[in-house]
Amino acid sequence: MKVAVVGATGLVGSEMLTVLAARNFPVTELIPVASERSKGKEIQFKGKKYKVVTPDEAIALKPDVALFSAGGGTSLTYAPKFAEAGITVIDNSSAWRMDPTKKLVVPEVNGDVLTAQDKIIANPNCSTIQMVVVLKPLHEQYIIKRVVVSTYQSVTGTGVKAVQQLNDERAGVVGEKAYPHQIDLNVIPQIDVFQDNGYTKEEMKMIKETNKIIGDDTIRVTATTVRIPVMGGHSESVNIEFANDFDLDEVRALLAKQSGVIVVDNPANQEYPMPKDAHGKDEVFVGRIRRDESQPKTLNLWVVADNLRKGAATNTIQIAEKLIEKGLL
Known about the structure:
The protein is an alpha/beta fold and 329 residues long. The protein has ten helices and 13 strands. The protein has helices at 11-22, 55-60, 72-84, 107-110, 126-142, 160-171, 201-214, 248-257, 275-278, 309-325; strands at 2-6, 29-33, 42-45, 48-51, 65-68, 88-91, 120-122, 144-153, 220-227, 234-242, 261-263, 284-291, 298-305. The strands form three sheets. It has a six-stranded mixed β-sheet. A five-stranded parallel β-sheet has the order 2-1-5-6-7, with helices on both faces. Strands 3-4 form a two-stranded antiparallel sheet. A hairpin with a 2-residue loop joins strand 3 (42-45) and strand 4 (48-51). The chain is globular, with a radius of gyration of 20 Å.
């Protein structure tokens, strides 16, 4: 299978190459794609070297699938061009997520919605992905009424510049900044730009995407998203109100059975998910499972995943795997 990775020189693009190799995706020919300024650079994949090409050159090479992680502008410009050439696009930007004509997919949650007509498929926001994987079995069993989520998100979600800012600040070096404030020894309660309603774009993504992926607009979601000085992954405190009551042991069993979820919930031994333990892993980790004692039928969870893996690269490649499984690729 000919696979194009658009944005191959970026943080997520590099992770896509790692995940393609780790999962033994059937790549017969790799086409690394980036902007004109990166043209001709060499990318290593499974011991072979490949030269970076431009998006227009990649279309002419007719890949079977194009994995996009080059920003919304590139996706809006080039995803339709790839699709018109008969190439299936799986896009990691926010460009197509809320387009009603495009599917927004987390394979463990709604992979069954994919059809042969889907030539541009959207990969959700990293913080939404890890939450909905956990919400799915609970919604099926107890019916979710409302979700209150607060996130603690890794600097890797912003990109190389943010990682460099954190490292510079730790080393006492004055350098380029990705954030309007210091991130080392600090938390920034803003991810993306503020909207007219006082929420950030990231918070509104989590709200709208959750409804679209689960396929239920009656679920009320409110979010506060926060950037913290860690690298390993995103963490979330999730409070879920149900229509029906639950048993905690049954909740743990449902989560343990859910594909892509690992339960780490042993407070007596101080065992719970942490970003450093999720780093480099494809699963979503959940712990701190307990009742909200302030109101009935309400559950508290702590959810952690590597935002570059399940939150981006892995989920993109799992969508491609689902297409192969369904005979659509």
